[in-house]
Amino acid sequence: MSGNVYDELKERGFVAQVSDEGAVRKALGGDPVAFYVGFDSTATSLHAGSLVPIMAMVHLRRAGHRAIAVVGSGTTMVGDPSGKTEMRQMLDERTIRTQGQAILIQLSRYLHFDGANAIAVDNADWLLPLNYIQFLRDIGRHFSVNRMLAAEAYKLRLEKGLSFIEFNYQLLQAYDYLTLYRKHGCTLQMGGDDQWGNILAGVDLVRRIEGATVEALTFPLLTTASGAKMGKTAQGAVWLDHEQFSPYDFYQYWVNADDRDAGRFLRLFTLLPLDEIKRLEALKNSEINEAKRILAFEATKITHGEKAAEEAQAASVAAFGGKVVDLKGTASGKTGVVGDITVLPTTAIAQARLESGISPAELFTEVGLTPSRKEAKRLIGQGGLSVNDERIDSLERLLTVKDVGPDGMLLKAGKKKIHRVVIE
């Protein structure tokens, strides 16, 4: 899309709230603007929900603006109360630093840190050396407790209890903005909509201390059409790390998206031109599967690379059939392409166990295709489980070494979930 990148962000669905829309639009249509997004170091990997801020950063970076990714090892020492009903687990500094480095490596895949147009910083570098009394005198005096308590993030916690350490979080995030303004000329902070109060606190702090006008922009907090939190499945988080959540599973997460989410996800999680997305959004009935295959391929390519996306797609087609998406993001008419079956999620089972025979209910639950043996038995009664594309029609059936072919044993639950079992 040509023109102002702010208009593209808005059309793609990235904008929830903005401090001064006219000012932000004007700034993003002119000379390069330094902007930042913070990512606290609460885990060794980000998850699919984090792709909303990441993709927004990618769009601004591509438009020539300067990206600052802030890993919050300092703020993670305190814990952000936003959106939480209980206090976050307190982690030690070494763990936090290690997790922060892992997150930086992930972010580099999207933002390509070059030291100029995209940089990465850790707020522990300026927060941990702070003198507490001096910080209170210089920064704390600019904050109104009454105003802070009126913020949504704190109001939600007051009934169950808000610790004093968490109460400091807003001051630290605001100080981040002040520091980045001073060091890097940063004039735009972006984040999830639950961060609106914290970001505005930073805007106000920069104005009070530096007499400068800086801006704020937040992204919507996404849920799927079914109401589930974005980036979550029944099995847990959709991690961006390939070891914690394989490229194949990542591809399957997107290809199995609700039909109602296809267009919205194409806008947010791919770099396809908006004209092409509008064409895909117009597809109806079974044709919407083309849009979801393209979504899955493009999202996987951005996160795990083109080769991993091709392998995941080929394995999916081999397991479930369907069309193949070419590198230009369009669907070809080829079906039944044989992919590398080893890309499928795989569990190794001891040969002795298979020689004795394992009940389907036990094995399907063990590999995570069903949440419990009771559910597995229910699905068998409904004809919903199969082994090597043969429906399991009896609770007395045992799975043995005879079911393990050259490519292993392929277990399927319904039409969308598959797992490969090999002999250990």
What tags apply to this protein structure?
15 strands; Rossmann fold; Structural Genomics Hypothetical 15.5 Kd Protein In mrcA-pckA Intergenic Region, Chain A; Tyrosyl-Transfer RNA Synthetase; five-stranded mixed sheet; 20 helices; alpha/beta
Strand and helix map with partners:
Elements: H1 5-12, E1 17-18, H2 21-28, E2 34-40, H3 51-62, E3 66-72, H4 73-76, H5 93-111, E4 118-122, H6 124-127, H7 132-138, H8 145-150, H9 152-158, H10 164-167, H11 169-184, E5 186-192, H12 196-210, E6 215-219, E7 232-233, E8 236-237, H13 247-255, H14 262-269, H15 274-281, H16 288-304, H17 306-320, E9 323-325, E10 331-335, E11 346-349, H18 351-356, H19 360-366, H20 373-381, E12 385-387, E13 390-391, E14 409-413, E15 417-423
Parallel strand pairs: 2-3, 2-5, 3-4, 5-6, 11-15
Antiparallel strand pairs: 1-6, 7-8, 9-10, 12-13, 12-14, 14-15
Helix pairs in contact: 11-12, 13-16, 13-17, 14-15, 14-16, 16-17, 19-20
CATH superfamily of the largest domain: HUPs
Q: What's the quaternary structure here? A: single chain
Q: What percent strand?
A: 15-25%
Q: What is the residue-mean pLDDT, rounded to a whole number?
A: 87
The total strand number stands at: 15
Helix content: 40-55%
Number of domains: 3
Radius of gyration: 24 Å
The main pleated sheet reads as:
6 strands, mixed
Specify the CATH class of the largest domain.
Alpha Beta
